[in-house]
Amino acid sequence: MFVGSIVLIVYLAFLIGVPILVGVYVFQDARRRGMNAALWTLIAVLVPMLVGFIIYLLVRGSYPDLKCPRCGAPVRESYVSCPQCGTRLKASCPNCSAPVEPAWKVCPQCASPLSQDDPNIQTPIRKKDRGLGVVLAVVVIVPLAVLLIVLFSFTALTAKSSGGTGVAFISTDEYLAMADNQKINQWLEGCGDDPDTAYVLRHEISAEAEDDTNMQYLIYIPALPQDSNVDIDSIPHLLGQDSLRLTFESDGINQGSTLVFVTCSGDANQKMEIRLEGGGNLNCKITSVDYSLGFS
Description:
By secondary structure, this protein is an alpha+beta fold. The protein is built from six helices and eleven strands. The protein has helices at 2-32, 37-46, 51-59, 130-157, 172-179, 182-190, and strands spanning 66-67, 74-75, 125-126, 166-171, 197-204, 215-220, 230-235, 243-248, 258-264, 271-276, 283-288.
């Protein structure tokens, strides 16, 4: 529900915020260019899928995006001097005063030879259109953010119980008696008593079982709650293997006398998350074995 609310908020922000941002930019930009600012703003905002905004960018006229390097007044390419402070911006013909380029040898207006570069000339500064960059960034980044949030929310919402999952709680002595496996007994003896650690044996059944459960897990948790209920979920991940998550209720503390036997579908690369309700994830020490963990 929380993720869905975030998606809705971001989506509404995109639907409302982007047209406002586009409208403000188009209005200011069209006014600078001497265009009909109100008309082009309506076209850019009301035509769907940003088509109006694209049309505006294609047909908008030029405007003085140069400024005087001394006083900052707007100037044009053809200006020889700044109309505000008189700064020389461009070379001119000494005979007819027509503006000329630095590389020209002869004036195209009067055919007079041109002298070398004038050291007093200061080149105009071109103003950057930062507003367009902001608009384009929002138009591109926001949809990508919405898409990522939707994908991750879909991942969270599709978390489901593992197919064919079975869980059994059994005392350590009873399990060892029924399993009659010295290797498991040695593994239990080597387990520590860290309450923040879960010790896990994992066995992948080579032949496919009839109920599609091909993984066995034997779990020992020193701080396993007594008579605990457990929720088991398969958590899909977009870029990796699904995780098997076991969440135990935290009612009381076990004295290390109970094991958890889990059967489910999956493979040997499946990640495992074990947590106690109200706490964080336990550190899982998983050991893969080539013998069955079941008992008769």
